[in-house]
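User: My collaborator sent over this chain with a note saying "see what the structure looks like." That's all I know about it. Can you take a look?
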Amino acid sequence: MELPILSAGKLILRPITEKDTAALFRLYSNQEVTHFMDIDAFANISEATQIITFFREMLASKEGMRWGITLLDHDELIGTCGFHRISRTHFKAEIGYDLFPDFWGKGIMTEAAGILLTYGYQELQLNRIEAFVDLENIASSRLLTKLGFRFEGLLRDAFFEKGRFVNAQLYSLLRREHAREAIWE
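Assistant: Without extra context I'll predict from the sequence alone. Here is the result:
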């Protein structure tokens, strides 16, 4: 399977390649970016190479897909987004995203996630897209709510990350809810 290039507005979502190694290292070595993620901040550029391989393996196994986020007029990677834990049997996937702090609060992730949601429902024929959010990650909760996701509940000690158990909020958006949101916009 090949990852398509997706674009809308001022963004392009494109496959992540070796040319993105340095940018991925800068992104994932930034403590602000990885604070709520289930990975430690990168300490070595070889970790960026390994994650590119991981993204390719996820795509090949059809378990996930990850795009690089770039601005329309500049091909430098400013973040990533995609789907994990894709289940064709249950028509669902988990959404994930990250962005350099310089681009936070500018509507970029709202736009990128909107592109992803449309792709997920139309092309992948998903019925449900989920997100698991650390209780302290208020910005991510706000983003999901803005996109129409509904809070479903608190999962106690849902994940073991960075040496501790972490509670997670579960959000979801169903295809019919996304279609309704699109009509109202």
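A starting point for your reply to your collaborator: The chain has six helices and eight strands.
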